[in-house]
Write a structure and sequence with these properties.
2 copies of one chain form a homodimer. Chain A is about 30% helix and about 30% strand. Chain A has about 325 residues and is an alpha/beta fold. Chain A folds into 2 domains: about 1-140 and about 295-325, Quinone Oxidoreductase, Chain A, domain 1 (Alpha-Beta Complex); about 145-275, Medium-chain alcohol dehydrogenases, catalytic domain (Quinone Oxidoreductase, Chain A, domain 1, Alpha-Beta Complex), CATH 3.90.180.10. In chain A, the strands form 5 sheets. In chain A, strands 3, 5, 6, 11, 12, 20 and 21 form a 7-stranded mixed sheet that branches. Chain A has a 6-stranded parallel sheet with strand order 15-14-13-16-17-19. Chain A has a 3-stranded antiparallel sheet with strand order 2-1-4, with no helix packed on it. In chain A, helix 3 (about 140-150) crosses helix 4. The longest helix of chain A is centred in the middle third of the chain and has 14 residues, at about 140-150. The interface between A and B is large, with 35 and 36 residues. Chains A, B: This is Zinc-binding dehydrogenase. Chains A, B: Pfam families: ADH_N, ADH_zinc_N. Chains A, B: One of its GO terms (molecular function) is oxidoreductase activity.
Chain lengths: ~325, ~325
């Protein structure tokens, strides 16, 4: 089969189209013929940082497609089923938390090929209201947003949520999901264009990343902050967080280290809840939630399979609003 | 009535015995004749930091005694009832968290007097198995420990808990409660004497505060950390915390600022949960828990009412293991 393979060179320059072996699914596995796949920042990190460049890897954590073959012992799944793929492998529950976390697309081969082989527990029925492109870009970011908002953030209707770095995949799902759940939503971005797009998507209030947030909020406080920016904005969080407020962190694009005042934390009973991906149960709950509220991914741009390098260039430039996808 | 009053001078030098007005309880209030009261670090902080030294304050958040008078509209409480006092006033629930937090003993007059007047909702039946001295020192620290371990820390039987700074009131209750809940408990202290006392109280493992904990634990990880030390020990936390581990913070005796690596937090799905005191529901649940497990406060020393200054000197020196109380 043809696949987008990463090898030899760090970064997206190491990407190229190749013909790779197309194996049959083993017992408990399913082969899915990919219709559309989605790009994630995770792919960029792997391409930049992996040390085993002698090995070829088919990246890609997001995808949707049609079941092409099933291994032994696979029940309730037939060739021809239209499915969406859950990207989290080996998630063991301890207090609703992962014990081991392994994600489709590295080290195991992912969705940037004509076929992908996954455990049968990793596929769910594709929501019928979504196009192939929409289903293909949904999984990882929507799952991360769902877990961040609901499992970790315990968002309640009527609460005020602040979402940093709007335009990114997870942040954009978080905006749509929080509005669907009846929350008031404020978003931040450095880009005026992205702030305007967020207002069109239903944000109640927008803030420039480098402005004084507490001033713009006019003393209004937020109950929940969903953040993937880290260092550059963290110092503003404790100023705008209401008593018993929660910060849910799933990334740190501007820097990894933050300084915290413990007394500010405990006088206000704050919580900092770090999160990553989600479980199979959360994936199913997320699919039900988006279907019930008819939430559609915001598609930034869809590229043909062959133009994966250009697709990643756009993501690296940080210009997108919403998801970037590949069409097979 | 006679009371230990703080005024004029910052610190425990400002304490003296005085005769103060003894008012009748208003509607909804109860007057309790104090039998024993407990000292807390909170009292020291207030004496050091309050700016309104022109006002006389009767400190004291912990106490137990006999109902001496009841105001209008108070039901189910009679003169002569033996009661224990819940020190948290004005706790409004939002997600099980306080909206406003006001604590007996400052700015409202507290338990270091012959009588204290509290809302009738602040008293509970004194557990019969406790002496007056034990009941008098129990409330604030046991409530804080209970909320830290169970409401915030979600401790489960079989988990491994690390409690820093053993010897302090809250830490000592946390040790006894965690053992009663079926957890494995490791404690830390700078003092070898306190580490030995902790072993006698049931701690499974002890660590010197300044040793390399991950080495001593031989790779063993903890699920929950209960901390009030802050800066001096915080850098060790992320090294010994198991995946999905929680840090519950209720103090910062060594310093307020800590630096956190966000990626370490979210790769491991860690939580930092700050806490302070507890609600009336938690106070009742704590009383039931200690009664069921026959947990008795560790009494460091009981001083006569008149020797409150000496009692605080001992607390300031940090020499105590467990609670320091006053007997009326």
């Amino acid at each position: 089969m043809r696949a987008i393979v990463h090898k030899q060179v760090n970064g997206s320059e190491g990407l190229c189209m190749h013909t790779v072996a197309n194996r049959r699914p083993n017992a408990g596995e399913v082969s899915v013929r990919i219709q559309a796949a989605g790009l994630n920042h995770r792919d960029l990190f792997i391409m930049k940082e992996r040390g085993d460049l002698d090995k070829s890897v088919v990246l890609g954590s997001d995808g949707a497609g049609i079941v092409a073959a099933v291994g032994k012992g696979v029940e309730h799944i037939q060739v021809g089923d239209e499915v969406i793929i859950h990207p989290t492998l080996n998630w063991t529950r301890t207090n609703e938390m992962p014990e081991i976390l392994d994600i489709l697309g590295y080290p195991s081969d992912g969705t940037f090929g004509e076929y992908v082989i996954v455990p049968f527990t990793s596929i769910e029925k594709k929501p019928a209201y979504l196009t192939w492109e929409e289903a293909g870009v949904l999984p990882l970011a929507a799952l991360t947003a769902y877990r961040a908002l609901f499992t970790r953030g315990q968002l309640k209707s009527g609460e005020h949520v602040l979402i940093t770095g709007i335009g990114g995949g997870v942040a954009t799902y978080a905006l749509m999901m929080a509005k669907a759940a009846g929350a008031k939503v404020t978003v931040t971005s450095r880009s005026e264009e992205k702030r305007l797009q967020a207002l069109r998507l239903g944000a109640d209030h927008v803030l420039a990343s480098d402005s004084a947030w507490s001033k713009s909020l006019q003393g209004g406080k937020v109950n929940l902050i969903i953040d993937s920016i880290g260092t550059a904005v963290f110092s503003q969080f404790l100023q705008v967080l209401a008593s018993a407020g929660r910060i849910v962190q799933f990334g740190r694009s501007s820097g990894d280290k933050v300084e915290i005042s413990l007394s500010t934390m405990f006088r206000n009973q704050f919580s900092m809840l770090a999160t990553s991906m989600g479980s199979a149960e959360e994936f199913r709950a997320m699919l039900q939630f988006v279907e019930r509220h008819r939430i559609r991914p915001v598609i930034d741009r869809i590229y043909p399979f062959e133009q994966a390098v250009q697709a990643f260039k756009r993501m690296e430039a940080g210009e997108q609003f919403g998801n970037i996808g590949l069409k097979m």
